[in-house]
Amino acid sequence: MRGAFFFACRRGLRYSAAMAHTPNRLESNWSQIKPRILAEWPQLTAGDLDRTEKQYDKLVHFVRENYGGRVDIIQEASIRTTLNRILAEIEE
Q1: CA–CA distance from 87 to each of 7, 15, 41, 62, 74 (Å)?
Q2: Distance (Å, rounded) from C-alpha 10 to C-alpha 18?
Q3: What pTM does this model have?
Q4: Are 66 and 43 in contact (CB under 8 A)?
Q5: What is the CA radius of gyration of the chain?
Q6: Which of 15, 21, 59, 92 has the maximum number of C-beta atoms within 10 A of its C-beta?
Q7: Are 67 and 43 in contact, with CB atoms under 8 Å apart?
Q8: Domain residue extents for the chain
Q9: Which residues contact 59 (CB under 8 A, 6 or more apart)?
């Protein structure tokens, strides 16, 4: 959030608490997507999902960590594609 503060100050904008946090798609749909994530990746636990703090990048990290394999861009792209598909289905 520090970056947002400096950007706002540089632009002459007032920094407010409203600027401090904007929910992401994952966070906005968390109650609906959480069971779908657990179904898609059954090795993840509810505790793992709680530790992601509803953050997309942390979730990708936990999936990669729990499912092993090569840590490369192809695996990450596959995880992100699956998450985006689930989110799109929920948001319809």
Answers
A1: 30, 31, 15, 18, 20
A2: 18
A3: 0.65
A4: yes
A5: 16
A6: 59
A7: yes
A8: 23-91
A9: 26, 37, 49, 52, 83
Per the document, the length of the chain is: 92
Residue closest to 21 by CA, chosen among 53, 51, 46: 53
> What per-residue confidence (pLDDT) applies to 23?
63
Written as tens digits, the pLDDT of the chain (92 aa) is 444 444 444 445 444 444 445 568 888 889 999 999 999 999 999 999 999 999 988 888 888 888 876 656 667 888 888 998 998 898 87
Kindly state the helix (H) or strand (E) to which residue 58 belongs, with its residue range: helix 56-67
Question: What pLDDT does residue 92 have?
Answer: 79
Give the span between the Cα atoms of 90 and 19, in whole angstroms: 26
Whether residue 70 contacts residue 77, with contact meaning beta carbons closer than 8 Å, is answered with: no
Q: How far apart are CA 91 and CA 79, in angstroms?
A: 18
- Residue 21 one-letter amino acid: H
Tokens 């929910």, residue?
Answer: 23
